[in-house]
Amino acid sequence: MIRYLLGGLLLMTLLTGCNNRDWRTASRESAGIAPDPQSTSEAIVQVYGAKAWGWRGWFAIHTWVATKENAADNYTVYEVIGWRLNRGMSVLRIANDLPDRHWFGEKPELLAEHRGEEAEMLIAAVDQAARDYPWQNEYRVFPGPNSNTFTAWIAKQVPELDLKLPFRAIGSGYLN
Predict the structure, then answer these.
(1) Where in the sequence is the domain holding 89, given as residue range(s)?
(2) How many domains would you assign to the chain?
(3) Which of helix, strand or coil describes residue 101?
(4) How far apart are CA 165 and CA 134, in angstroms?
(5) Is 104 left (phi over 0), alpha (psi -120 to 50) or beta?
(6) In this structure, is residue 10 part of a structural domain?
(7) Total-model pTM
(8) What are the tens digits of pLDDT across the range 55-74?
(9) 104-136: per-residue pLDDT in tens?
(10) For residue 6, is it within any domain?
(11) Cis peptide leading into residue 145 (ω within 30°)
């Protein structure tokens, strides 16, 4: 059994070593999914997911939430990023940003979307749920808390989002 485990770890290490991608130069550009806030006045709430960086992307995704208030000219992005903890920062990041930014080279997919009056009613609740996230200074890839735990937390606090995270959102079950 140990031999198979070591063989699997060796294989993953070799395959990762053959990868010439570098997270520092990977695309963080908009994927062109979200409406342009300059030409879209309605409120918007979106949830995105993209393959995790490196070998983790073979089976896991990173998720985040983006909101745009009515008539706002930018989006607010809510996400948890583990490496922030190593730099002495909270893992929780709330910032004006591109909502549909590539996750270090991986194009995001839209997991949920609400617009107009429905979105307007959700934005304050999403913001409060994010600020109340109980693991702002903790992060573990598995079993959590991680970025998917955060998105699942928001979904639990704001059930009107009607968000069902995919199986690949590892860590989303940490709440249970």
Answers:
(1) 27-175
(2) 1
(3) strand
(4) 19
(5) left
(6) no
(7) 0.85
(8) 877 889 999 999 999 999 99
(9) 778 999 999 999 999 999 999 999 999 999 999
(10) no
(11) yes
